[in-house]
Structures are given as C-alpha cells and as structure tokens.
Amino acid sequence: MKPAIVSPVMRSIEVADTGRSVRFYRDTLGFEVREQPGAIEAVYGPAQVQFLPQGSTPESAILFFQTADVAAMHAAILARGGTPSGLDKVNWIKMRMFEIRDPDGHTLWFGESYDQPCVPAPSPLLLKALPELPFDDVGAAVAYYRDVLGFRINYQQSDLGVMDRDKVTLLLIARTERHTGMGSAYIYIEDADTLHAELLAKGANLQDEPISHPWGLRDFHLFDLEGNRVGFGQPFE
Q1: Is the pTM of this model over 0.70?
Q2: Would you state the pLDDT for residue 35?
Q3: 3-state SS string over 206-218?
C-alpha cells in the first residue's frame, strides 16, 4: 500500500515536455495520470496537478504535499529511482520534510507533522453543492444565465431552471413567500481575468475588477438581473 497524501492540492504548472512530466509524476512519484478535455493532470489522492504548455516566460512553482508517512513516501520515491533530499525537521512549522525537483525545476515538498499526527480524512459524505437563486421571472433568469453568463440549460420549467457550466450547477427558482429576498453563490474558477473579460464583453453587471487577496483567492463579483450576487474566485498559492 503506497503512502497517502492527506491534504487537498490543486495546482496548474507549466511544463516544457508533457510526456516527460507524465513519466516523472507517474513513475517516480506514484501519481495516476488522467486525460481531461484539453489538459492532462496527475492525481494522488486529494492532490491534483495539471500540466500546461510552457509560456515564453516560464514560471517556477512550489508545491507542498502533506503525507501520512513522510519516511515511507521518501523511501518509495527512492525505490522508484528518484533523488529526493534527505529528511529534515523544520521546527518553525513542526514538520518533517524532504524536497525533490521535477524535470522542469518545480520544487515539490513532501511533509508530515511531528507535532500533530496526520490522520487520513474519512470518505467524503458531501459531494456537490447546488445553490438556489430566487427570481420573480424564472424564464428571463434562464435566458440571462444562458446568454450573458454562459450557462447551458440542463432543465427548465415555469418555476425552475437547472443551469450548468463546466462542473458547476445553479438552480434558478421562483421567488415565493418561502423563498423571498436575494440569493448568492460563490464559484471557484480556473482563470479570473479571462472569465471577467468574457462577462464584461457580454454586458454582465460586474461589481469589481479581479483582486488578489492574501488568503489565496483572486476574485470578482456580479449582480444578476434581479440582484442575486455571484462571486467567482481563482485559488492560487
């Protein structure tokens, strides 16, 4: 049984040679490799690393993977022919860690707390959220989310619109005595600047420009045609 990675990681990194990166993450680090529409990603438990074509100015990334057994992870990588650094205690964060570089020079840290034991998370019970946004005119809302915000109609009736875009589903519901006032939703996205430019060009009621926050999100917000607030946030490290 291979050692577990216990904390979620979702990063996109630039690579010069996708095949070379696939071989390293699969054969040396023990990741599974999956092909997604338009992208290839390496997956190890809750960790996902997506490979992107290298730009004209390559960006170096630093990724941290928290493990349940850092010594076992170190030994497994050595056994597969990897060249990790030695195991060291980093006192200020109370972790035992090692480093390895991938073929593009990205820095990968693997660590385990020696102050608080790592306990693998239980199997998930919550799988997906479907926010409900109330409207006086559901038909007009469905058209707005389709034509301005880029959603696809999954299902529609007089008091309900089920709207999909990529992996996100929103429910547009009729405003009633039990569903009064305004709703809101916050959606995690891949690229805040690209989506902001798209929605601006379509005439969406944007409230701000994309802003990067110290807590690791770059986001912006809009109000839909009846005042529901929708935020879009791009995680970064």
Answers
A1: no
A2: 87
A3: ECCCCEEECCCEE
